Amino acid sequence: MITRRRPSPPERRGRWRALLLAFAAGWSVLFAPSEGEAGPALVFDARSGEVLHAYGAYTPWHPASLTKLLTAYVVFDAVRSGRVSLDSPVRISEYALSQPPSKMGFAVGTEISLEYALRILMVKSANDIAVAVGEAISGSEQAFVAEMNATARRLGMIDSHFVNPHGLHDPAQRTTARDMGILARALIRDFPQYQRFFDIESIRVGQAVMTNHNKLIGRFQGADGMKTGYICASGFNIVATATRGGRRLVAVVLGGMTAAQRNEVTAGLLEAGFAAGTGSFGLLSGNRTTLDSLHRPVNVGAPIDVSPYVCQKKKAPPEILSFGTEATTVAAGRPSEADGARIIDNAGAGVLALASAPVMGLPAARVATDPLVAFDVPLPRPNPFRQASPTGPAVPAPPATPVSTMAKPRPMVNPFEPRPNPLR
Fold this sequence. Notes:
Layout: H1 9-24, E1 30-31, E2 41-45, E3 51-55, H2 67-80, E4 89-91, H3 94-97, E5 111-113, H4 114-123, H5 127-138, H6 141-155, H7 177-190, E6 202-205, E7 208-211, E8 223-231, E9 235-244, E10 247-256, H8 259-276, H9 307-310, H10 318-322, H11 364-369, E11 374-377
Parallel strand pairs: 1-3, 6-11
Antiparallel strand pairs: 2-3, 2-10, 4-5, 6-7, 8-9, 9-10
C-alpha cells in the first residue's frame, strides 16, 4: 500500500513555486489519469477554449450541485426564447418542498420571482428551489430534466447525463471535467448578461444572510464565478472563473477531499494560468489543445464514488489526491462546505491565493453596508389559500403580516415585490 506523508508548509510552498515555474516555462502539464482514477482538474481560456491544464478531463464523475449550472442555462434559454421572463413567478409545490437539504423550506404555495429564485439557486444551492424552477419552466421535473439532457447534447457534453435539476445523488447522474468546462464556456459565451448571478458573495432573505459556498469570490484576485457542488459520492467540486487584464480563465476541479483542499488547488491552478500567459501551454508536439480536441479514452467507464474517502475517512489513493500536480494536501477530519472558508496563503511562493478574511465569511458590517456584496431577496409570503393546509384542501388563511428585510432595497437591485396570489 502506498502511504503519503503530509508535506510541511515550506514543502508545499516549494511545490507551488515549481508548478508556477513549469507553467511559465511552457511545459506540458496535460497528464493522463492513473489506473483510470483521478481527481479531475481542468483549466482553460474562456474565450479561445485553449486548454492550459488537463488531468482526468474525461474521467466520469458525479456533478453534485454543479448540475445547477445546467439548470441555469436551460432557464436562460427559456427567457431568451420568450417562454418566461425573470419576473415570472416560481411557485413552491409539495414535491419541491419534499426535497432534501440544502433547501429554503418555503411553504407550499409560496411564490418568488424567477430572478430571485436564480440568486438563491446560485448562492444557497437550494434543492427545493431547483425543482420549483424546473416545474415553472417545463411543467414538471421530468420534462425539465429532458430539456437539460437535450441541451447538454446540443452543447457537446458527450459524457454527461442528468436525472434531476439539483444534483442530489443518483448513480446515473454523471459528467466529466471536460463537459463542465463546455457548459461553463457556453454560459459565458451565450449569456454574458447574466454574469451577475454567478459572482454574488451573499444574499439576504428576511433576517438570514447566506454566503456563497464559492469562497474564491471576494478573496481570490479576479474571481467572478461560478458554482460549487458537494455530495459524499462526488467529493467537493467546483467550476470557478477569474478575470485579469481582460483575460478570463475557467477552472474545473472535481473530487476534493475537503472544500479547503478544493479551493487551494483551484486557486493555485488559476494563479499559475495567469502567470503563464496566453499560448504558453500545449502538448509536447507544440500543438495547442482545446476543449474540443482533448483526447478522449475509448472507454470512460463508470463514475468514481469517493464517499469512502470523503465521508468514511478512508485514505484516498494518491492519484485521486494529486489533480495532476504535487501541490495537494488533505485536511484531517470529516469535511463540510464550511471548510471552504479556510484561508489559503501561499506567501513566499509568489502566490497569494486567497486574501485575508474572517474564517466564517464576510464581516457582518460589510454584508450590511456594502451594496456590491449582499443582494436583498424579499422574503416571500405563501399563497393565502394554501397557507393553512399545505397537504389538504385549500383553506383560507388570515391576512399575512408584512415582512421587512434587513435593509431597504437599493436602486441597483430593483427588487420585485412578493405577491400573494389569492386566485390560486
